[in-house]
Write a structure and sequence with these properties.
This protein is α+β, with helices and mostly antiparallel strands and 365 residues long. It has helices spanning 33-56, 70-76, 78-95, 104-116, 125-147, 169-181, 184-192, 261-264, 268-279, 287-294, 317-322, and strands at 118-121, 196-206, 239-244, 255-258, 324-327, 334-337, 343-344, 353-362.
């Protein structure tokens, strides 16, 4: 971690000129009417999803128990969800300065997050050992899952495992108690202007065989971007945290965050367009998805997952790389960050990275 790093100097997220891009405009035929219509239909689907999620403040609602039929499950429990949505909105409207931090530790964390968008989390050796022990069975389950698939068969989500709070409330209690003691929950509540808790705990394993961040344009012979995997998340109104479970150095996929970029990602329509494309899977870089994305009107050609598309001679490379804060185990146990800022991580060159991710979301009624 380099304390001398500056802040992201731009007031907007990177905008790629896809007409001149070697893997898009220079490699794809001019889209026909049918392709343009198909692209717009897919974009409209993504926009509907993100508009609904934002309107409902979805990230702060309980996750559906039926993972295979999420929509049906939520519709059956719509009275409960409507009550939660209304009560949360009313509580935030009446909150005022109720969540202003009181402890000096929380104030310092809040100031850092507001300025940089990221804070390096510090935990004691005893806390890290206790955490690793509690997570051991979940990493064992992940190991078995990954051993059963070759790297080319492996999907990104298969490197992660969500822990159901109903099945293991003790681990959620441990993380909440620990993060309250460090001032993180208090600072996060102040930043988000709502009472939050640690939620959605997800262990993850990454190793050099992961290919989600490489070889995007081999079909047209275009090299990978040195900004590959830089992205902003498709979520709204929350903070995230990643804690390293093993020792993570420069070669083990440390988390990187472009300091100050969380302010550049706050444009309403720009953010909605980028997230709509992400949810519609138009951000994917496989040839069929590139063809559809390139068929969109130029004003809609924006992604939240834009890193792979930034040419190595782009004017955005320097402001991204020069202000990217890389956090290894030498600097902290992990990170607390605003996922609306530009970040990447898990790009392992050697060894492995064992980490646990979590969200800071509104405490349920």
């Amino acid at each position: 971690m380099s304390p001398g790093l500056g802040q992201y100097p731009l007031d907007h997220l990177p905008v790629v000129d896809y007409r001149s891009h070697k893997a898009y405009g220079q490699a794809l035929a001019k889209p026909g009417l049918g392709t343009r219509v198909a692209a717009l239909k897919r974009f409209a689907y993504g926009m509907t999803l993100i508009a609904g999620r934002r309107l409902a403040d979805y990230e702060h609602l309980p996750r559906p128990k039926d993972k295979q039929r999420k929509l049906q499950w939520m519709l059956r429990h719509s009275p409960t969800y409507l009550r939660l949505i209304l009560s949360q909105r009313l509580r935030r409207m009446a909150a005022g300065s109720a969540y202003a931090p009181k402890s000096a530790t929380a104030k310092a964390i809040l100031n850092t997050i507001e300025q940089d968008g990221i804070f390096a989390v510090q935990l004691s050796a005893a806390q890290l050992a206790d955490m690793a022990e509690k997570l051991k069975p979940y990493f064992g389950e992940l190991e078995q899952r990954l051993a059963g698939k070759s790297p080319d068969q492996r999907k990104f989500d298969e490197t992660r495992l969500w822990i159901d709070p109903d099945e293991d409330p003790e681990i959620y209690a441990w993380f909440n108690d620990t993060m309250r003691a460090t001032g993180i929950v208090e600072a996060a509540s102040a930043y988000l202007k709502r009472r939050v808790v640690v939620s959605h705990i997800v262990p993850q394993i990454n190793d050099p065989s992961d290919n989600f961040w490489a070889n995007h344009f081999v079909d047209v012979g275009v090299e990978d971007s040195i900004c590959d995997y830089f992205h902003v998340d498709a979520t709204y109104n929350l903070l995230k945290m990643i804690i390293y479970v093993n020792e993570v150095g420069e070669e083990n996929g440390p988390f990187s965050y472009v300091k100050g970029s969380h302010r550049a990602g706050r444009g309403f329509w720009d953010g909605m367009i980028r997230r709509a494309n992400d949810y519609a899977e138009l951000s994917w870089t496989k040839p069929g998805y590139r063809k559809l994305f390139f068929a969109l009107p130029r004003a809609l050609q924006r992604k939240g997952a834009f890193g792979a598309d930034i040419p190595n001679d782009s004017r955005y490379v320097k402001p991204l790389l020069d202000n990217a804060l890389r956090v290894t185990s030498a600097n902290g146990a992990g990170v607390l960050f605003d996922p609306g800022g530009i970040h990447r991580g898990g790009m392992v060159q050697a060894g492995r990275r064992l980490a646990v991710g979590m969200m800071l979301t509104e405490q349920p009624d």
